[in-house]
Amino acid sequence: MNGLWKSITENVVFVLEFLAVVAAMFVIAWLIEKLSQKRRGKKEKILDARSLAMIGMFSAVAMILFLFEFPLPFAPGFYEVDFSELPVLIGTFAFGPVAGVLIEFCKIVLKLVVKGTSTAFVGDLANFVVGCSLLLPASFVYEWKKTKAGAAIALTVGSLSMTIFGSLFNAVYLLPTFAKMFEMPVEGLIAMGTAINPAITDLTTFVFFAVAPLNLLKSGVVSLLTMFVYKPLRVIMKSRK
Description:
2 strands; single chain; two-stranded antiparallel sheet
């Protein structure tokens, strides 16, 4: 009975932490938006009916892409790469950082409704937070320089942020939480990495040889694809308020 109560308590705490992280991402996005408005000398609605409709569309596309995950030869099987951040970034550039975080959140919710979770929500939290670590820095830069060159700089900054933050977040929080949720030692996860790459011997090398390359690959591919579709969707992006 005590074990059941402990498990329930830990899961409730994790859900509350998840919601707190979501709220924090929205606050950061709102601050970026307000700073941008202040710089432009305009006070505007952050979201309107048209942007909400587009957010719904981008969220649906992101969710579909999220369902297609691919294993990587240099990372354990519980790490897979997807390219669902592509519509998230496009929506962010078109309608702002608040819209971007909302698309990212709706993508996760829709995926949970359609497919559920196989990682006790840990993987879903990871996807949301690491995705925000790409879109928020990118949107911060792009809000100040809305040109193709500005987009390239923004995506570079976002990719570096995602790689660094995603790696640290995995090491400090996600991997220990994942191990705790599945009642296994972190060393068990490291051993799964060692089986693929003998250079992985501890948590640091696990992050360096598995997590960081995954985040760099994903952010790099998504950023390149975003640049390719930037020009065709320029009219949509310029139509924002």
